[in-house]
Amino acid sequence: MNILFAFKAEPDSGMLAEKDWLAATEDTRGPDTALLRCSPGADEQAAAALLLAQRREGCDMTLTALSISDERAIHWLRYFAALGFDKPVLLETTADLRFAPEFIARQITDWQRHHGADLIITGCQSSEGQNGQTPFLMAEMLAWPCFTQVERFTLTPPFVVVEQRTTTGLRRCRVRLPAVIAVRQCGEVALPVPGMRQRLAAAKAAILRQPASSDETPNVQCQKLARPAQRRSATLIDGATAQEKARILWNDYLRQRMQP
């Protein structure tokens, strides 16, 4: 079974200082994330962990890890190679892909049409654009079924059994391949850590690198940036002494919360 795992190495914007966010609102370029550490999202890490767990259980599969990015994705492609992915692929581009789900979907589907895959697995959404459209666009382009909010899946070729979170609870479906699955991280699986021997071997692993299609490079222009004010509601406790303030805090707030 050929499985294509598509991920996006995203910069950790939480590492930016307050002054960087304030400076970003002065123009339309956004904060500079060029030097930030990049990593796949939590959803994508959960998807990779589920794939590797089933390989350990004896499921016969060929795993391809694909990313559409620049040099910053190389580290994670080698990381996935160290974990056991058979073919790391980098579609190189320097374009801003934060809000270009159609471009990303077309690149992945073009790869699938030329190399073949029975199953395409992604995360539900990225932490940058957060539009959640890419899996659905891929499924539409390929005329495949698409399942999102998937917490677990089990491969039983030619079927895949998915456990999908819905508004009414957990739904379990048995689907004939091919299909597109968007995994949601639910805190029950974690990405394994490769050993030193696997890391050294992956450092020399060949990564297939080819340019992404330039015919449809997205031309997304930011028109305005605004950072919403984050304010916390609070109640001031008035009292003549610290002991009086502590008594008011206990009587009015803490006592009710500590009742058995």
TrEMBL record:
GO terms, molecular function: electron transfer activity
Domain of life, per lineage: Bacteria
Record domain Electron transfer flavoprotein alpha/beta-subunit N-terminal: where: 28-218
Gene3D superfamilies the UniProt entry points to: HUPs
Keywords for the protein's UniProt record, in alphabetical order: Electron transport, Transport
Keyword flag Ion transport: no
Stored Pfam families: ETF (PF01012)
SUPFAM superfamilies: Adenine nucleotide alpha hydrolases-like (SSF52402)
Similarity comment text for this entry: Belongs to the ETF beta-subunit/FixA family.
Official protein name in the record: Electron transfer flavoprotein
Organism listed in the record: Citrobacter braakii
